[in-house]
């Protein structure tokens, strides 16, 4: 039995070593590298930026938008993506003998499934098993709840925030905070400033591309801005991407909420 088990592990490793991959998802690219299979990558999307070394790879598309001719020229055996903007392009790759995997990765549950699947595909079940244990520990950890209402500004023009079904709601909750727009049973929403100003806001996480909270007068009315409780200048990819660094991001957010709750 032990010999058979070792043989299976060897076959999995050989399969993973031979598998060349193009990834059009930043989270999946990070995961492939985290599982020890960066050498299998032969192409990436233009937004795959971590680890730094993947920037040397050829750009084979944008997020969920493959550059068909480029991918065909790279001749990968596997193409992974969260989704396709145009699902019909999948046929082009299948005809060329390139398997495609669409792996949604919008929350921790879906991320865990991505780990399971890629662990098998890449021949690294042991590494995948360790990451799944880390995910389960994060999901099941005892939450140190704080009475801190967190408004996550994904975009400011138009205003967009996360609802209860979003990954960001999950992040805020695991860090011990309260999602300021978490009562809405949807993924994302566009609330009015008037509605938000009627509620207490202790912290603002700013993911919009500009420093609009400094420039637009309406933001000065929020208590979080008055207290300088705006979290903007940090690598937000560790929170925005459900991936290997998410635990680190949640721990950093939790420490920030702890510090500000004591002021």
Quick tags:
alpha/beta; 16% strand; globular; 2 domains; Rossmann fold; 6-stranded mixed sheet; 4-stranded parallel sheet; single chain; 263 residues; disordered N terminus
Can you tell me about this structure?
It is a single chain. This protein has twelve helices and 13 strands. It is α/β, with parallel strands linked by helices and 263 residues long. Helix 5 packs antiparallel against helix 6 (125-140). It folds into two domains: 12-138, Nitrogenase molybdenum iron protein domain (Rossmann fold, 3-Layer(aba) Sandwich); 149-261, Rossmann fold (3-Layer(aba) Sandwich), CATH 3.40.50. It is globular and about 55 Å long. Strands 4-3-2-1-5-6 form a six-stranded mixed sheet. A four-stranded parallel sheet has the order 10-7-12-13. A three-stranded antiparallel sheet has the order 8-9-11. Strand 1, helix 2 (26-34) and strand 2 form a beta-alpha-beta unit.
Topology:
Blueprint: H1 2-18, E1 21-23, H2 26-34, E2 41-45, E3 59-62, E4 65-66, H3 68-74, E5 78-81, H4 90-95, E6 99-102, H5 108-121, H6 125-140, E7 149-153, E8 155-156, E9 159-162, H7 167-174, E10 178-179, E11 188-189, H8 193-197, E12 203-206, H9 212-215, H10 223-226, E13 230-231, H11 237-240, H12 246-261
Parallel strand pairs: 1-2, 1-5, 2-3, 5-6, 7-10, 7-12, 12-13
Antiparallel strand pairs: 3-4, 8-9, 9-11
Helix pairs in contact: 5-6
